[in-house]
Design brief:
The protein is of the alpha+beta class and 196 residues long. Helices cover 58% and strands 9% of the residues. It is built from 8 helices and 4 strands. Helix 1 packs parallel to helix 3.
Length: 196
């Protein structure tokens, strides 16, 4: 059984959702970022972390890729064009959405007060909206890459949830419909139930 370290309101949700989609059992060790529990297995103090046997894997996307590859679901075969397209989508989401949202979070609460620049958030919201409009044009089906759900969908959906809570506007009806369809998945609901 896998052991996941973290909390649902963090990037840990991505890992829990992946495990639920894969139908894999896991234990959630609820711990906050920078807590003694997480620092004992990840010196950066960041969550999530995944224990797979005796091994620890850190970084939510690295964990998702590992799980998808290991169980042969939520991904495409190595060397396929679809796999390359999924990887490209993962990088795009990390660069254009996750990084922007994290920059806004750092300047809202994560950085020491004297290093925060709250005024940067307006520029980050503009950048997020521009990237969202570009991605909207690429969304032609129910999923981001091909005709099956992949970890790219989990990553993007998590970023959209984060955007809503961070008051980043998501005006596109197409993107709103996509996000709603992802949030109605039973695996998502089970992962979210870990918050209670």
């Amino acid at each position: 059984m896998y052991k996941v370290y973290g909390l649902v309101p963090t990037r840990t949700l991505r890992v829990l959702w992946t495990l639920e989609e894969l139908g894999q059992p896991y234990e959630l060790v609820q711990c906050r970022p920078q807590s003694d529990i997480i620092r004992a297995i990840n010196p950066t103090g960041k969550v999530p972390a995944l224990q797979d046997g005796d091994d620890i894997i850190t970084d939510s996307v690295a964990i998702m890729i590992h799980l998808a590859d290991k169980h042969g679901q939520l991904t495409y075969p190595f060397g396929s064009i679809e796999r390359a397209q999924m990887n490209a989508m993962l990088m795009l989401i990390l660069d254009e959405f996750d990084a922007v949202l994290w920059a806004a979070a750092r300047h809202s609460f994560a950085l020491p007060k004297e290093h925060r620049v709250p005024e940067v958030k307006e520029s980050l919201q503009w950048e997020f909206a521009r990237s969202l409009a570009q991605l909207e044009n690429r969304l032609t089906g129910p999923f981001l890459v091909g005709d099956q759900m992949t970890i790219a969908d989990i990553l993007f959906s998590h970023c959209l949830n984060w955007a809503y809570s961070a008051k980043f506007p998501v005006k596109s009806e197409k993107i709103q419909k996509y996000a709603k369809s992802m949030r109605t998945r039973e695996a998502y609901k089970r992962a979210m139930a870990n918050a209670s």
